[in-house]
Amino acid sequence: MFKRLSLIIVVLAVSSAVFSAARQDKPSSAQAPPPARQIPGITTGDAFPRGCVDCHTNHPELKLDARISSLMKGWNERVEPALLAKAQATAPSGVTLKGKHPVAAFALKNIPTGCLTCHSKKSTLAPPFAQMLHMIHLTGGEKNHFLSVYQGECTHCHKLNPSTGLWSLPTAPEP
Ligand code: HEC
Ligand code: HEC
Ligand code: HEC
User: Does residue 11 lie in a domain region?
Assistant: First the structure.
């Protein structure tokens, strides 16, 4: 353990020495840092200001209806095994999910706040939303379209208020 740690320290020390040597060789113009990373809503525009409902839309040309209401209709009948596995991993302890979603039309009028009434941090029946949604959107690597198509950006869901520094989750009905 300690051996490995000291090896890491040596590697870091050597590489930082190499990097600083390389830096000194370059003319000063090469020292300019790269431009700021494009972070939606922070350093570049926000294509999904209302969060969930702005991204989960119908794409008839792709035969892909990603509206939350349409997904929910599906879960009322049957939940795909991959989704069920992620949800089960975040379910309150002792709860075995049935693989069928209760009818919850009221929640569709206010997404995700309506969902959070059942999926709260303290729920004893349903997976808490933070855990479940992070599992759904942020795990699985390249195969996950939220990571590969939308770059896994936190700020597609979490919005920063630049005047106060506070984060919030926008909530809205489906259009
Ligand atoms: C910028 C786009 C985007 C935003 C914003 C977004 N999602 Fe998603 N969501 C996706 C993508 C892409 C997937 C598919 C992930 C995959 O490939 O496994 C997904 C998957 C899901 C699934 C699983 C669907 C299934 O049938 O497997 C649920 C549930 C979900 N999102 C709910 C939400 C909720 C609720 C919010 C808001 C808190 C939200 N999403 C915000 C893009 C988004
Ligand atoms: C009336 C309470 C209630 C509301 C409101 C609710 N849920 Fe659920 N949700 C549950 C329960 C209970 C489960 C566990 C179902 C099971 O046993 O499979 C669940 C499970 C899920 C799952 C995992 C798949 C499944 O059905 O097991 C997803 C995804 C989900 N909810 C998304 C949502 C979204 C998105 C909203 C808001 C539009 C929402 N839920 C609103 C109670 C609710
Ligand atoms: C698909 C939407 C979505 C994305 C993307 C997302 N979050 Fe969240 N996050 C949520 C929701 C929903 C909650 C729960 C809010 C609540 O319970 O009131 C949450 C809550 C949190 C919390 C509060 C602590 C907790 O776990 O309850 C933290 C911290 C957090 N998110 C960090 C992140 C980070 C870091 C990223 C990017 C790597 C990220 N989130 C991306 C939807 C998202």
Answer: no
Read off the pTM.
0.90
Pocket test for ligand 1, best of 146, 149, 153 (most atoms within 8 A of CB): 146
DSSP 3-state assignment of 137?
A: helix
State pLDDT tens for residues 141-153.
Answer: 999 999 999 999 9
Overall domain count for the chain: 1
pLDDT in tens, 94-133: 999 999 999 999 999 999 999 999 999 999 999 999 999 9
Q: Are 138 and 147 in contact (CB under 8 A)?
A: yes
| Residue-number span of the structural domain to which 99 is assigned | 48-175
Cβ(107) – ligand 2 distance below 6 Å:
yes
